[in-house]
Amino acid sequence: MKTLEISDRRQDLRPLLELASEDNVVITTPGGRRFMLAEIDDFEDEVRLVRENAELMALLDARSASTKTITATELEKRLGLRPKTKSRKQRRVPSPSGRG
Description:
Layout: E1 2-5, H1 14-22, E2 25-28, E3 34-37, H2 43-52, H3 54-65, H4 72-79
Parallel strand pairs: 1-2
Antiparallel strand pairs: 2-3
């Protein structure tokens, strides 16, 4: 990843976009705010970045190792939800004329 500082004056973005086509670019403002400029192109790059994230991969490995499951009823109970009940027959509402 490349890091650049920018000044308050306006600059043409083409050189930054050219850099970002080669590697991610971090842009730092005079006030210290930082931004990432990255080309959005290939799913393969995203997959590579995910695979390189050791912490995320460890989390995914731990989650995939779990074989315990619970029923929907148990999940509703744990979440404090009421199980769905059968709907009651709709009550007839009298017509305004009083008939039917």
